[in-house]
Amino acid sequence: MKWLRQLSIYYKINGIIISMLLLLSIIIGFIMMDTTTKLLDQQIEKRGAEMAAYVAALSSNDILLDDNYALFDRINQTKNNTEDVRYILITDSAGRILAHTFAGNLPKGLPIKLSLYPKDEDGYQTMKFNSNEGPIREVIVPIENGAIGYVRVGMSEKSTQQLLSLKLYEFFITTLLICLLAAMGSTYLAYLIIHPMRNLTKAAQQIQQGNFYVQTEIKTEDEVGRLAGVFNEMIESLKEKDFENNRLLKELRAKEELRTVLLNKLFTVQEDERKRISRELHDETSQSMASLLAYMKVLLSKLTDEKQRSLLLDARNVATNVLGGLRKMAVELRPPVLDDLGIVAAMDKYITNFSNQQDLIVTFSPPDQKLIINNQIALTLYRILQESLTNISKHACATSVNISLKQDASSITLRIDDNGLGIRSGAIEAARQKNRLGIYGMKERVELLGGNFTFHSISGQGTTITVIIPIRCLE
């Protein structure tokens, strides 16, 4: 029944109306044919009975006088004057034929022996039989209650059948014309219903494509017209909503652009501040600590008291450790190798130091070709590496980390995999609510460059971070 659901309303309306008309015509045709046949049969029987009674009334004396010629002449005149009469027979009381209207032999199938049965209310009896000339209805009327004889009139149904065929043909033509008129009427009715619906469908398709300035024409005030009016009101409402949405979208885009600018400035200021602090730690604080160590070395050479020398050596060791920590901090804030030798060398050095300090197996797969990127991209990749390894050392309990850096014709890809505990569901959102924004900070950095940051973690199966930055960002 799928094809029926997909069928147009036009064909459904026409099909229903014409089918109902055809069904009604067939039922009426059967009823009419049955009724007409019965009425014609009654008329034939009545006419046959009247003729038989007429012949019987005139033939009693002729039978008694054995005037067969008079009998023959009377029945032939009667037959010739009536088209439906096939034959007339006059028999005696024993059923022997005295006169008949057949020029030759009797038709095959005609019962010669007279079979009598109780008469009906009109005083005659009928029987129907098939002969070689077609169906014949015979009416039998007794002469003087059968004491003298019987008149048998055979009425042919040929004219009746012709009349029925003619009426059936006329009924068929009338039905065909009515169905044609009904098809025209149903077509017009379907047009009145479907045309506005097609307009509504076209308008809905225009709305689907974003055109909220379409209107449907209202020609009537019926249900379809009211539907079109409601549809136009809906379009106006959607137009207002679309205008409001466009306004809000413009404001959101403006705020997003402002946010992007602010984040860019924030990261730029942050990196500049790190660079300044790193330079101060390296150029001023570290130099001061180095000078302090030099003075302590001179002072140590002039002391003779062992206790004082021991205290000064301990202080010198503390100062040495502080100097080492300052230099490490300065390198982490802004590694000079990043500016001098590039991102690959800086990442390799950081990974080596991290692996030695955390006792982790960290493998690094650099790109085959020389990587040429600007400072912003290099800083982003380096900070993501730092943040990722820091998170792994604090939370993952991993034993190995795989890092790869690749470049193709359209993008640069950084991938970091560990075999740690992974992150359970909801842990990232809980960290965000506690203002632990490490992952979100990495994501923001990548998105500012038009890149894509993906984070995939399964509890107990490790974590994978993938960063893809389009090549256009290198220009």
UniProtKB/TrEMBL annotation:
Residues 280-473 form the Histidine kinase domain. It is an enzyme of class 2 (transferase). It is a multi-pass membrane protein. It catalyses: ATP + protein L-histidine = ADP + protein N-phospho-L-histidine. Its cofactor is [4Fe-4S] cluster. InterPro entries: HAMP_dom, HATPase_C_sf, HATPase_dom, His_kinase_dom, sCache_3, Sensor_HK_TwoCompSys, Sig_transdc_His_kin-like_C, Sig_transdc_His_kin_sub3_dim/P. Its EC number is 2.7.13.3. It comes from the Bacteria. GO terms for cellular component: cytoplasm; plasma membrane. Its main location: membrane. One of its GO terms (molecular function) is phosphorelay sensor kinase activity. Residues 191-243 form the HAMP domain. Keywords: 4Fe-4S, ATP-binding, Cell membrane, Cytoplasm, Iron, Iron-sulfur, Kinase, Membrane, Metal-binding, Nucleotide-binding, Phosphoprotein, Transferase, Transmembrane, Transmembrane helix, Two-component regulatory system. The keyword Amino-acid biosynthesis does not apply. Member of the two-component regulatory system NreB/NreC involved in the control of dissimilatory nitrate/nitrite reduction in response to oxygen. NreB functions as a direct oxygen sensor histidine kinase which is autophosphorylated, in the absence of oxygen, probably at the conserved histidine residue, and transfers its phosphate group probably to a conserved aspartate residue of NreC. NreB/NreC activates the expression of the nitrate (narGHJI) and nitrite (nir) reductase operons, as well as the putative nitrate transporter gene narT. This is Oxygen sensor histidine kinase NreB.
